Amino acid sequence: MAMKIGEKPFFDRVDDALENDFMRNAMASAQDRLRDKKLDATERDDEIGDWEEWRSAGEEIRRHTLENLDYYLDQLSENFAAKGGHVYFAKTAEDANRYIQEVARKKDAKHVTKSKSMVTEEIGLNEALEDVGCHVHETDLAEYILQVDDTDRPSHIVVPSLHKNKEQIRDTFKSKAGYTGTEEPSELTAFARSQLRDVFLEADIGITGCNFAVAESGSISLATNEGNANMVTSYPDTQITVMGMERLVPTWDELDVLINLLSRSAVGQKITTYVTNLTPGVEEDCVDAPKEFHLVILDAGRSNALGTEFQSALHCIRCAACVNVCPVYRQIGGHAYGSIYQGPIGAVLSPILGGYEEYGELPYASSLCAACTEACPVKIPLHEQLIRHRENYVAEQGKPKAGEKLSMKAFGIGASTPSLFQIAVKGAPTFLKPFVKDGSISNGPGPMKPWTAIREFPAPGKDNFRSWFKEHKRGRK
Ligand code: SF4
Known about the structure:
Elements: H1 10-18, H2 21-41, H3 51-67, H4 69-82, E1 86-90, H5 93-106, E2 111-114, H6 118-123, H7 125-131, E3 135-138, H8 141-148, H9 166-177, H10 185-202, E4 205-208, E5 212-214, E6 219-224, H11 228-234, E7 238-244, E8 248-249, H12 252-267, E9 274-278, E10 292-298, H13 327-332, H14 343-354, H15 356-359, H16 371-375, H17 382-396, H18 402-416, H19 418-432, E11 436-437, E12 440-441, H20 448-454, E13 457-458, H21 465-473
Helix pairs in contact: 2-12, 3-12, 14-17, 18-19
Domain 4Fe-4S ferredoxin-type: 306-337
GO molecular function, one term: metal ion binding
GO biological process, one term: lactate metabolic process
């Protein structure tokens, strides 16, 4: 499945990530930067008024839309088709790819340009198009970098190449694209621009994702910063937009609210540099709009969440604010999740779309601190959904692992039997002594091993709370 990144088991990927100090430092500083920009544009911005009211409005819009999804999808597809557009409802990723391959075949397409789109990553569209002889060109700078680097995979839903620094990008461009310049961002960008200019001109088909579709007019809205989406949608005669079936709003008024929430939460801007709204049906002599416009509306597992406790996960507007505050993402980065959707929303969404067998361990990639829920501009209760997933995962497996069950049972007996608890507390300093160095435990035994391999655990002292309390009660200290 194209949503999947890598073949290693989850905990092996986590181990790899924890050994990569460079990546972890890069993630930490990127998270701090992105979170700070978001706070400046939301809670700290007096101009926007009460941010909590904006969040409530966003939550209400998304809830109302999802509760009436069939109605608004009908309205969207009717309005899109009435203006001459072609609508295709794809039940699976394979259905969507087949439809798009067919359009490419009919057009005898050789070159396809794409703007950034996680949903096309999700369905593996590039590979499907290459199978029918198309050259697919990513035109978003971050996606272009990943494509030049032998189709490296995204590590962040808004900034897909977050795991690379400018020196690495320079080296990639040098070894794989004939670049001869320095690591200066302006030089690197100018090089990418020069490479992409001709690509835009020769494209037969342009493909985009969809930030939001507007049901009342049958329009597509794209929020971007680089202008490449405008090039993708204005040069080729044929345009295809792929949207997750939940990514729509009833009217332009709701779009206004959600674009504000998205721009401010995702990139800390009052509004992105471009907000491009596209509706099929152009004048015959219009030269900068597609003559043929296809809208592929994708289910691919989304309907699994409808009518369940996970329905609100479909409210997501893909801003990555939850990713940018997650302490687990900070430590393990994006690739460790093994899904193109990372961080808290990835840990909630991936099991819904791809099942527990593939992604059942992801909900454990959370400290349940709820920072994600607090950051979410449409108030998705992410930490609660992570707990629900854990419950379902254990229930689906039939029974917890034998070792886990045994240790929890032993802990339960120990913790609920005062005499055993006291023996354990008193014996702990002696038992753990061989592992203590400079007042803390490193490389501890048994279940402590993974924890203490990367962090220090305070060594238990001779005094414990019970003895301290006893002494105080007697009034001796
Ligand atoms: S879950 Fe909320 S915070 Fe996370 S990406 Fe989606 S909308 Fe943004």
